[in-house]
C-alpha cells in the first residue's frame, strides 16, 4: 500500500479541506497538496526515478517537506529523510551510503552539497528553486505507483552516537502497522485535528503525518520552523485541536513557559512524548499545569513509535493504587507487537526482574541497509533486541531502566544510571543530570554524576549525596559530582554519555 494513495483518497473525499499551514496561514488545501505531490512524482518519474530508487530529503521543517515526501512516494521511490541539524559532511555520508540518486534540499542546506557530492554523486535540487516549482506544475500522475507490503518506503539513519549511523529499512507494511497502532494505542484523529511539526520532520514528528493524511487533518509547520514554546502556545489557541510529538526536554520547556505565562495549553489536544527519560517530577508538573493532554510512547528507529504506549488516562491517573509505578513506566505493548524481557541468552525473566527488552511484530524493521552483520546481531529469531534494559510488572507495564551499554557494574553489582538520576533531579536547584561509570582499579567502575544547576543557583555535593543516601542503596550513590554548565547532546537532543565517559578517561 503506497501512502500516497491515502493522500489521494483524502483529497478526493474533500479537495477543499485545509491541508498545509505555515504558522496560522494556510498555503494549500488537500486538492492542491495532491496536485503538487502528483506533479513532483511525475517529474521524478520522467528522470527515471521510481521503484528501487532512493531520494534523500535534507531540509529544515517546512510545508515543502511533505510535498517532497509524497512526490517521492507517488513515483514509487523510497525517501531518505536526513536531520537538518546534521553537518553537511554527515549528510553526504548518508546520501552516499544510501546510494540516493537525488537530494531534495533548500538553498541554505544545499549550498555546498553539489560540490561535496562531486560530479558522479547524487543530483541536488533546492525546493526554493524554479525547477522544483515547475515540478509541482508538471502534468500529474493519475495515481501513485503501486507498492507492496515489503517495498522500501523510508530509509531512516540512526543517530550514530557510537559510530557511523546505520540505515534502518522501513517497508510500507512496517509504517502501515505503526500508523494503525496509533489510532488504537495512542490517540484517535479527526478531520478537525492538526499535527504540529515542531520536532524534526525527518524523525518521529514526520512519521506522524500518515495518521493525519488518512483522516484529512491539517499539517502545521511553525513560522520558526522549529520549537518555540510561546509560538506553539499561540498557534494552539488560534488553530485549536493541535497534536504534536515532543521529546521530554521539549515538554519541560513548554510547560515552564505555559506556567510562567499563566496558560494551560488551551487548543492542544495531545502531546505524544518519547525519545528520552521523562522524569517523574516533570510529568507531574506537566499534567498539573496543562491537564490530561499527554501520552507516552516507547519505540526506536528499528521499531518506530510502536513498542509500548502509556495512555492519556494512565499519565493523568492519580487514583489507581499503583498509579505512580505506572506513570514511571513506558506503558504496555502496543496492539501489533509482542514484547518480552529476557536474559542474555534470550530466556524470558520473571515478572519484576530486569533484562533486555525484545520485540517482534509488524512494525519491526526489515533490517539495516547494506549491513547484514548488524542486522543479524539486532534481529535474532525474529526478535528485535533493543539494547534497552527494563522490567515488566504483573499487569504488563514495562519500566525502562536504561540502555544496556550505559549500565554500571561496580563491585559486581549492577547500577542503572537513570535510577540515580531520578533521585538527583528531585533537588529543586538541579536542571539536568547524567550519570556514567568511570573505570576503577578495585571496583571495576565507580559512579560519576554530571550535574547542571538551574541558572543562577548553586548546588552542594553534600546535599545531593544525602538525598541519595536517603533514597537508594549506598553503593549506588555517586562517588564524585561534576558541576557543568551543559551536557553534551546529539542533534536529536539525547545526552551523549559516550562523550562524558571519554572526558573522564582523558582526564585520567
> How much helix is in the residues?
25-40%
CATH class category of the domain at 408-507 = Alpha Beta
Percentage of residues in strands: 25-35%
Can you count the helices? 18
- Using only CA atoms, what is the Rg? 23 Å
Which quaternary structure do these chains form? single chain
Mean pLDDT: 93
| Unreliable stretches covering 5 or more consecutive residues | none
Largest sheet strand order = 2-1-10-9-11-12-13-14-15
CATH superfamily of the domain at 408-507: ANL, C-terminal domain
CATH topology of the domain at 408-507: GMP Synthetase, Chain A, domain 3
Q: What structural category arises from helix and sheet content? A: alpha/beta
CATH architecture of the domain at 408-507: 2-Layer Sandwich
Question: Which word captures the global form?
Answer: globular
Please report the total strand number as a whole number. Answer: 26
End-to-end CA span: 55 Å
User: Major sheet, described briefly?
Assistant: 9 strands, mixed
In short:
With about 500 residues, the chain is of the alpha/beta class. It is built from 18 helices and 26 strands. A hairpin with a 2-residue loop joins strand 22 (about 410) and strand 23.
Write up what this structure looks like.
This protein is of the alpha/beta class. It has a domain at 408-507: GMP Synthetase, Chain A, domain 3. Helices cover 33% and strands 27% of the residues. The protein has 18 helices and 26 strands. The strands form six sheets. It has a nine-stranded mixed β-sheet. β24 and β25 (444-453) form a beta hairpin. The longest helix has 17 residues, at 30-46. The termini are far apart.
